[in-house]
Design brief:
The complex is a heterodimer.
Chain A: H1 5-12, H2 29-53, H3 70-75, H4 78-111, H5 120-129, H6 132-142, H7 149-158, H8 170-195, H9 198-206, H10 211-222, H11 224-240, H12 243-249, H13 257-267, H14 273-298, H15 321-349, H16 362-369, H17 371-404, H18 412-421, H19 425-437, H20 440-443, H21 449-474, H22 477-485, H23 490-501, H24 503-519, H25 522-527, H26 535-545, H27 549-584
Helix pairs in contact in A: 2-18, 2-19, 4-8, 4-11, 5-8, 5-15, 6-8, 6-12, 6-15, 8-11, 8-12, 9-10, 11-14, 13-14, 14-19, 15-27, 16-27, 17-21, 17-24, 17-26, 18-21, 19-21, 21-24, 22-23, 24-27, 26-27
Chain B: E1 4-12, E2 17-26, E3 31-35, H1 42-50, E4 57-62, E5 65-69, E6 72-73, E7 81-84, H2 96-106, H3 111-124, H4 140-153, E8 158-162, H5 170-187, E9 190-195, H6 198-204, E10 207-212, E11 215-220, H7 222-227, H8 232-237, E12 242-252, E13 255-260, E14 263-268, E15 278-283, E16 289-291, E17 303-312, E18 316-323, E19 326-333, E20 352-356, E21 363-365, H9 380-383
Parallel strand pairs in B: 3-9, 3-10, 7-8, 8-9
Antiparallel strand pairs in B: 1-2, 1-4, 4-5, 5-6, 10-11, 12-13, 12-15, 13-14, 15-21, 16-20, 17-18, 17-20, 18-19
Helix pairs in contact in B: 2-3, 2-4, 3-4
The chains are: A mainly alpha, B alpha+beta.
Chain lengths: 595, 391
Amino acid sequence: MVTSAHSTERATGDGLRRLVPVRGARSARPFVAVLCVLALVLFVWPVAMLAIGAFRTSAPGVPGEWSAQAVPAVLSDPRTWSTLLQSAALAVTVTAVGVVLGFFLAWVVTRTDAPLRRVVTPMMMVVFAVPLLFSALSWGMLAQPPNGTLNTAVAAVSGADTTWLTAYSWFGLIGTTALKVTAVAYLLLSGPVGAMDRSLTEASSLAGARRWTTFWRVEVPVLAPAVAGVAILCLVLGLGLLDVALVLGVPAGISVFPTEIYGYLMTASPPEYARAGVLALVLVVIVLLLVAAQNRVLAGREFVTVTGKARAGDVLPLGRARWACTAVVVGYGLVAVVLPFLQLVLGSLQPVFGVYGTFTLDNYLDVLDDRTVLEALSNTLLLGVVAGFVATLLAALISYARLRTTAVLRTLPDLALWLIIAVPGVVVSLGVLWAYLSTPVLGGLYGTVWIVVLALVALVTPIAARATSGAVVQIGPELEDAARTAGASQARTVVDVVLRLILPAFLGAWFVTGVLAAGNLDIPVLLASPSTPTVPTIVYSLYSQTGQTAQAAAVLCVFLASLAAVFVLLLALRASVSALLRRATPQPNERGGPR
Amino acid sequence: MIGVEVHGLVKHYGGAPVVRGLDLDVRPGEFLTLLGPSGCGKTTTLRCVAGLESPQAGEIRIGDRTVVGQGRFIPPEKRDIGMVFQSYALWPHLTVAGNVGYPLRRRGRSRAETASRVREVLDFVDLGHLADRSIGRLSGGQQQRVALARALAAQPQLLLFDEPLSNLDAKLRATLRDELRRLHATVGTTSIYVTHDQTEAMTLSTRVAVMNGGVVEQLGTAREVFDRPRTRFVADFVGIENLLDLTVEDVRGGTATARAVGLSVQVAAADPVSSGDPLCVGVRARAVRLYRPEEAPVGASTVSGVVTDRAFLGEEVAYRLDVGGVSISALVYTDPSRGRGHTDPDLDPGAPVLVELPTDQLVPLTPSGGPAGDRPATTEDERVPAGATGS
């Protein structure tokens, strides 16, 4: 936008003619400026304050001294290094399992004729949407010696000793986490795998390669950059997960970065903010390096783009091997969805965990009678709806600013998103604590549900931005030009054309981010006060702290049922909104014409 | 009825300028076409007039209002224009009537007024029966008519067209071209039309501005530009097949004799040219007359050449000739009633031929720059040499 006098002079040759001001057709500077401020406050400031907090001797919001003593203290602690090792082991194994399985399933669904392939995508969406706490709890109940459901079943059938069968182990921790990571990898990879140019595989077949040779020699290498990008993202995810590690890992003596940070803040007395900060910084640095590596691997490509044209209907007949593929699908479905759901329902109906044969609704009556639980449900609903909406709106505006305005700072909010995507939930909580408590205005939010909302917005906006930037790109700029020349201001154009056309993607992103925000444990467990409980914090404390397993299962069941209800409502809303909008547009008085 | 004035318009996107000091004067009620190859800056100029781009320098006036310049930038929504886009740019979430009514609603018209005006303008483009259709269920031609109706709906004081026909097939293009002519004849709104298609420019325009390298190279009626191109670039662009690079030998009473190797022609030269100057001369293939050597015409000055190629095109026959080392194209008719020199002499490659280049059909051309970038940037006033008027 900014033109220098020099370049203008060169262009006109005969010196300066009347210079027009720099503010132009699409600069939208005030709008971009506001977005920049919001992005800095929500995304950058907490991370910056985290770095500062690591060098303070006091708790957030309390006067203290500068000191670097936490750095050597943390770095010389052998525990830090064993934690690093365990975190790395967890992240690497779940990534390996998740990416291999996710890639394989994406290939089965998009390229083969294996039966049941059509159920995979909805199933993966369910796994992605349902909070990790759910699988952690369910598997904790399924495999728990002596009277977990599977233990009991195995013992009843074979009489064998089942102490080995426990989810409270590396095996359980990796297994449950990998199930989730598989869903993430699948959802990110099915685009590129499906979009790969079929002529590549056809050429290989014509060259005489057998189908498995083609799979290994052509499809895998062509997709390698996309797969590498997704793998790095999964590593980042694996490094930052708190819920499973807290529920399944900590009782087994396994500690990873997020649980360690949680420990410094919640179980150490007094809380060791500086040490937590140093540990968080180490984690952020590792993750930022990974994200940088990902950008390098993808070299600026969005990782859904694999060049080439896709043709629908080209499937590879697998012959007898297709039943093996179907077995993988069914196996995953059993372990990731069916067994955990059945267990959760079963667990919520047992009078006491591990007592079989009698069923009771007492647990539901108990929890629905409990004011705290009801409050948690309404808080969580609010968190999901509000944080999801704010995050999606913000993401849409950030995408719009980057793609469609010409203001100098238009890419800044988007860059801020890249920073925050690298920061795990626990670390966001810590950063928000440091940032907001250092100011009187935002510090007043501490203890209310709103500080949780803001932290959740920071956590999920980058995810919403993926959906919204894809949607904004789809809208031809000339649709906006047409609105401007038709007499609509830029703000009006954004509402009438851009937001209206991305509405389906907007609602989808709102739902996904809302569900992620509602099911998140990392943020409320550190930021919510006892007077603002949420479902995940309640479930966690019922299950892991007070041992009320059946009640925890009942609360989760109620929560999942409400999620399903919201989903149905949203579908209805989507249909009626578009119907309403269609009716609200100007029409001739009499609808004369034949259709 | 209002006019549009553009002075010293400069627009660049970071690097090389796309529009470099362009001047343009659109008269009230006129249908002016910006004609040029891709990258000549015609669309950018149009978008600057629309307010969709903000130029780095220059002034644009619509009617008596300065919309760009004097420290002002009036946004597009306040310029009272209607615009038709190449890709139609119809909003897929609105019906036909919704699209057409949008500019009216944005100008604060009531629902009732909007509805009646929408019906009127849809009837005008013969789409009255499709008012409730959704955009996705229209053909390309129907979509562009809706886009036209939308641009007309609010009766703006200026209509802008950005290659509106180039996405349509040849037949539809011809139909819509006629509709646009009818439209301008009926409504008479001042219009600026961008195209790279000569035929559209010739059939639609009151005047044509041929653009090259970010400036207007020639502005005149379609006839002037077509018959009397001023520069080599314009001549080439309007399809003059023969562009002969000659050297002036002799100037006598406004007539220059110029030659290249074995070819010598007489040109009416208004320029102050003197012997030794290079001179470019254009002549259409259709204007070239051919004779068999034994049928030499009386009183016409001919030069002899050799047929190098002959292609039968149906009604016409295309010849390629070598005249004293210069290659010349000629187009003659199979129909003998076309007159002497214009009838196919029926010669095979290798045969000798007599060629007549009629003096009144020869157009002297000034050399012009090629695409932007390979000549120093100057303003238009400096660029058009004095006296190079062919018309």
